[in-house]
Write a structure and sequence with these properties.
Layout (H helix, E strand, L loop, with lengths): L2 E12 L4 E12 L3 E5 L6 H9 L6 E6 L2 E2 L10 E4 L11 H11 L4 H14 L15 H13 L5 E5 L7 H18 L2 E6 L2 H7 L2 E6 L2 E6 L1 H6 L4 H6 L4 E8 L6 E4 L4 E3 L12 E6 L4 E17 L3 E8 L10 E7 L12 E6 L5 E4 L15
Parallel strand pairs: 3-8, 3-9, 6-7, 7-8
Antiparallel strand pairs: 1-2, 1-4, 4-5, 9-10, 11-12, 11-14, 12-13, 14-19, 15-16, 15-18, 16-17
The structure holds adenosine-5'-triphosphate.
Organism: Paenibacillus planticolens
Protein name: ATP-binding cassette domain-containing protein
GO molecular function: ATP binding
């Protein structure tokens, strides 16, 4: 797949250069892909999106569309479509007039405007209320109008900034599926900003996880979830339980040892680990099994969720990174009918090929290769 947008070492500063928000960021976005910028509030997602759109200056570096540097091309000449969280549709124009607005600006022939508008209203499923004014539409319908208006001009890039955040939970889920389907139908390269990790996982071809203006990892949703590049990504995407561990190279079997003596054999010895090295072991809630031996824990809370039971447990002091010492595990009721009582003792064994091992330093980087991915 060819590259549609190339961001090369861009730097963004505010307040006359006093505050650096993006300290030098590079990423390639491929043609036709649904690419999401994901990260906590204030990490610079909107700032980067606005640089791509042409609403923010670029202090250093380049942004290219295909092979063309667009740094100095004004927003209205970049051939982009934009959708924001507050819809930004004209209140005094009907649905149809809103959608055809961009085509009229471009002075297309009347019959072409009609044809294109009708086609896109059908794709976005707003053709039934084309004569209505926005005030008579629900939030979801208004967002569909905004989407239709953005894509009817056939932009080469569609930029969306938290487009679903004003909708209620159920509508958000429906609309994200609709957006995904429409984007696939139309095939526009899309850059999507959200701080909602579930939305990002559900909707994206690839995700860039950002923290403090720096991309921590770029990858497919599944890869980011199963092999997060560092502790931040592991805790930001989904839930992770963090345990203290050490690398043991002197015993007969090279292993990663938990603080209670439970150990997981290593698949490979990699260059950058040493005997006695402290590490952080991360385990997803659904990646524990109840076993004869493992990490001793007591059930402290159980929440019945239909197909699953979510248990909170308290581990022995000092084996987890978390001060509160409680972790979660999920029991799939499709595979068991056993229920655990509050205060009951269990042994939890992490599924060995699903754990991730991170360095115990400020970076908390994934130590690659010690555990093979199952
Ligand atoms: N015009 C501006 N002048 C000064 N600082 C700004 C300006 N715009 C944004 N910032 C700061 O830059 C940082 C990044 O803001 P940005 O809106 O890009 O974050 P975000 O990741 O999109 O967050 P959110 O999810 O809350 O929208 C924030 O600390 C914000 O206060």
């Amino acid at each position: 797949m060819s590259v549609a947008i190339s961001v090369k070492n861009v730097i963004k500063k505010y307040d006359n250069g006093k505050i650096t928000i993006i300290p030098g960021l590079s990423v390639d976005i491929k043609n036709g892909e649904f690419f999401t910028l994901l990260g906590p509030s204030g990490c610079g997602k909107t700032t980067l999106l606005r640089m791509i759109a042409g609403f923010n200056s670029i202090e250093e570096g380049n942004i290219l569309f295909e092979d063309q540097v667009i740094n100095d091309i004004p927003a209205h000449k970049r051939n982009i479509g934009m959708v924001f969280q507050n819809y930004a549709i004209f209140p005094h124009l009907t649905v149809q007039q809103n959608v055809e607005y961009g085509l009229k600006l471009r002075k297309l022939p009347k019959d072409e405007i009609q044809k294109k508008t009708a086609a896109i209203m059908k794709v976005v499923k707003i053709d039934n209320y084309k004569e209505r004014l926005p005030e008579k539409l629900s939030g979801g319908q208004q967002q569909r109008v905004a989407l239709a208006r953005a894509i009817v001009i056939r932009p080469s890039v569609l930029l969306m900034d938290e487009p679903l955040s004003n909708l209620d939970a159920k509508l958000r889920v429906d609309m994200r599926t609709a957006i995904r389907d429409i984007q696939r139908d139309v095939g526009i390269t899309t850059v999507y900003v959200t701080h909602d990790q579930e939305e990002a996982l559900a909707i994206s071809d690839r995700i860039a996880v950002m923290k403090e203006g720096v991309i921590q990892q770029v990858g497919k949703p599944r890869d980011i979830y199963t092999r997060p590049a560092n502790g931040f990504v592991s805790s930001f995407i989904g839930h992770s339980n963090f345990f203290k561990g050490t690398i043991q190279l002197k015993s007969t079997e090279k292993c990663i040892m938990f603080k209670n003596g439970y150990s997981i054999p290593m698949d490979n010895l990699v260059d950058d680990v040493f005997d006695g090295q402290n590490v952080i072991i991360s385990v997803r809630p659904e990646e524990f099994s109840i076993a004869e031996s493992g990490l001793e824990a007591r059930i402290s809370k159980s929440t019945f969720l239909g197909q699953y039971i979510n248990y909170e447990v308290t581990f022995q002091r000092d084996i987890t990174m978390d001060e509160s010492l409680t972790c979660e595990f999920v029991q799939d009721l499709g595979h068991t009918s056993k229920f655990y009582d509050i205060q009951e003792k269990v042994y939890l064994a992490p599924k060995r090929d699903k754990i991730n091992v991170f360095t115990d330093d400020g970076e908390q980087s994934l130590i690659k290769g010690v555990i093979k991915f199952g």
